[in-house]
Each structure stands twice: as C-alpha cells, then as structure tokens.
Specification:
The chain has two domains: 37 residues, no CATH class; 41 residues. It contains three helices and four strands; from the N terminus they run H-E-E-E-E-H-H. The radius of gyration is 16 Å and the shape is elongated. A two-stranded antiparallel sheet has the order 1-4. A two-stranded antiparallel sheet has the order 2-3. By secondary structure, it is α+β, with helices and mostly antiparallel strands. Strand 2 and strand 3 form a beta hairpin. InterPro entries: DNA_bind_recomb_sf, DNA_bind_recombinase_dom.
C-alpha cells in the first residue's frame, strides 16, 4: 500500500466520489490504484465538508441528503 501512495495512486479501497480506472500495463497486467473522480459525488463530498466546517452536525447533513434523495455510498441512505 505504501508504494502505491508514494507513486500517487490509491492505497486501497474505493472512496465515495471515485471510481476505479481499469487499465493494463504493457504486459497485459492490471494497473492498480488508479481512480477517477465522479463529479456529482465529489460535489456532495465538498458540500459535506463545507457544512461540517460551518458547524452543522454530521447527523443533520445526513438527514438533509436523505431528504433530498441523494444516494450515499453503495447507493444507500446516509
């Protein structure tokens, strides 16, 4: 994992707001750790940070996201 992070790629796991990029190297082996930002989900992440920084509780933010039918990670409720 450390080597991936030092090369500037993801260390593991898939975070909300990103998707895995499936690429192969010259030998046909999968290149691991490359991610692409999903713009709509990234905006939700920015919103969560803005609201938290302004003092809004995570519970209140989650309730608002659910009320607005914005799907959370894995398409579930927040």
């Amino acid at each position: 994992m450390r080597g991936r992070v030092e090369r500037g790629t993801a260390g593991g796991g898939l975070c909300y707001g990103c998707k895995v990029l499936k690429k192969l190297d010259a030998n046909g082996e999968p290149i691991r750790g490359d991610r692409e930002v999903i713009p709509e989900e990234a905006e939700v992440v920015r919103r969560i940070f803005r609201e938290f920084a302004s003092g809004k509780s995570p519970e209140a933010t989650a309730a608002d996201l659910n009320t607005e039918s914005i799907p959370g990670p894995l398409g579930r409720a927040w």
